[in-house]
Structure formats: C-alpha cells, structure tokens
Specification:
Number of strands: 8
CATH architecture of the largest domain: Alpha-Beta Barrel
Largest sheet: 8 strands, parallel, barrel
Shape: globular
Number of helices: 11
Strand content: 5-15%
CATH superfamily of the largest domain: Phosphoenolpyruvate-binding domains
Structural class: alpha/beta
Distance between the termini: 50 Å
Strand order of the largest sheet: 1-2-3-4-5-6-7-8
CATH topology of the largest domain: TIM Barrel
Bound molecules: 3-methyl-2-oxobutanoic acid
Oligomer: single chain
C-alpha cells in the first residue's frame, strides 16, 4: 500500500490473517532503512534509554529526549506507522498532563500513535487520549518502566488472568493494538484469540499477530546481555570494530588517505 500505514491498515492486517512486523528506531538513518525494508510499524521506544543513551532504566528517559528522537524518525519515514513511547514522566506521576504530552509526540514529532505501558490508571489515560483523538497502542506483561524484576509474566493462573483482564480493558478503552512483553506463549495465544485488535509480541511466542524487537539487540549492537527471546540477525558490533580498527591502522601507517582520495 503506498503512503503512510495507518492504525486502520494495521488493524486490517489482523483481519486479513497477515502478520505485523515492528522494530524500534531512534534516528534518521536507521529509520530510513527500516522503512525501505517495509517494516509495518517503527517504534521510537523508551528503550532509547538503555540502548542509545546508556541509562539504566527506561523510566529515566524524559519527554524532551523522546521528542528529539521521534522528530528524527518522523523525518525519515514515508511508509511505516510511527509510534512513540509515552515516557514515564508524561503520564504516570499524579497530575501529569498525559493528553498534552501525547499531543507533542503526535503534532510536533508527527507520530501516528503513542504507546502506553499498563499501570493502575492506564484505562483512564487511554480513554482521555482517545477522546482527544490520539491513537494508542497498549503494553502489558512485562512493563519495564515500573518492573521490579525482569522475568516471564503470567506464570500462575492469577497473574495470567490479571494480564488477560488488562488486555481486554485496554481494547475496550480504545487501543488499536497491544504489545505483549515477556509472557507465556499459551497466555499470548489466549489474549490474541480473545481480542479483535492485533497483539504484537516480544518474548511472547509465535501466536501473536505481530512481533517486535529492539533494533540494537537484533543487530548485535548492544553490548549488554540480551534476553533469550532475542534472535540476533547480524553482528554489527563486530563489523564496526573491524572497520574502525582498520581505519586506525591505515591512519597510523599513512595509508589513508591515498592518491584517489586527495586533491591536487
Ligand atoms: O521501548 C521499547 O523498545 C519497547 C519494546 C520492547 C516493545 O517498548
């Protein structure tokens, strides 16, 4: 389909039985590549904190940083739907102006939707955002902004039921899609079957309607330990190391620049 993908076109992929691809991007050149490759959704994730800014927690990234990176991604993308994470500070603290903050991501950075992690007040925030005409992707299971521990969610019947209830509540509140992070495959399968909106899994098995990975993890650009569910499709750290070492050696030996790269 030519032109920007929309929340409607993404929803219709589920109805048509087609799987949805989503990856994170935080800058212009990688967003361009993802868009050229035909990825359906590009997420300006708050994983920005860990993989780009060198911070310990996604809760540490603020709205100004999210806007800065979302604008760069927005400039690059002509086809994919761009979704940006609502940073913790924009909606979780009491009194935060979630609608005003989300508007900045949509109106100022040009995002097609925002993503919101589950928390006690999530339904109220989604309802307010939808009333303001802002499209919302929900996020349940492991919610890194507030998680005390990074482990598989929904292992016992009570917590699995709680996640299913959250998923249904977010659909009813008006989310157009839902990220399921780090949940048992059979729970993700049940949630996917019970919702009309697409589920997009990360560490949630193969029965979701789509999949998402953090770009730096799948390209081997993350020196931190990556979770077992990540498939590494390239080892760019090694390629960058080799290129930079070769450059350094050629500079030191006077081999770069050679005649072909000099002006006379
Ligand atoms: O911030 C992020 O990259 C995410 C994905 C893990 C879904 O929320």
């Amino acid at each position: 389909m030519p032109g920007h993908k929309t929340v409607c076109s993404i929803r219709s992929l589920k109805a048509a039985g087609k799987r949805i691809s989503m990856l994170t991007a935080y800058d212009y050149p990688t967003a361009r590549l993802l868009d050229r490759a035909g990825v359906d959704i590009i997420l300006v994730g708050d994983s920005l904190a860990n993989v780009v800014l060198g911070l310990d927690s996604t809760a540490q990234v603020g709205m100004e940083a999210m806007l800065h990176h979302a604008r760069a991604v927005g400039r690059a993308v002509t086809d994919a739907l761009v979704v940006a994470d609502m940073p913790f500070e924009a909606y979780q603290p009491a009194g935060a102006d979630a609608v005003g903050q989300a508007r900045r991501l949509v109106d100022d950075a040009g995002c097609g939707a925002v993503k919101l992690e589950w928390f006690a007040g999530a339904v109220e925030v989604v309802v307010a955002l939808r009333r303001a005409g802002i499209e919302v992707m929900g996020h349940v299971g492991l919610t890194p902004q507030t998680a005390a521990e990074f482990k598989v969610q929904g292992r016992d019947a009570a917590s699995a039921a709680a996640i299913l209830t959250q998923a249904n509540a977010l659909e009813a509140a008006g989310c157009f899609a839902l990220v399921l992070e780090c949940v048992r495959e059979s729970l993700a399968q049940d949630i996917t079957a019970s919702l009309k909106i697409p589920t997009i899994g990360i560490g949630a098995g193969k029965y979701c309607d789509g999949q998402v990975l953090v770009l730096h993890d799948m390209l081997g650009l993350n020196e931190r330990k990556v979770p077992r569910f990540v498939k590494q499709y390239a080892d760019l750290s090694e390629q960058i190391l080799q290129a930079v070492r070769q450059y350094k050696e050629e500079v030191e030996q006077g081999l770069f620049p050679d005649e072909s790269r000099s002006f006379h």
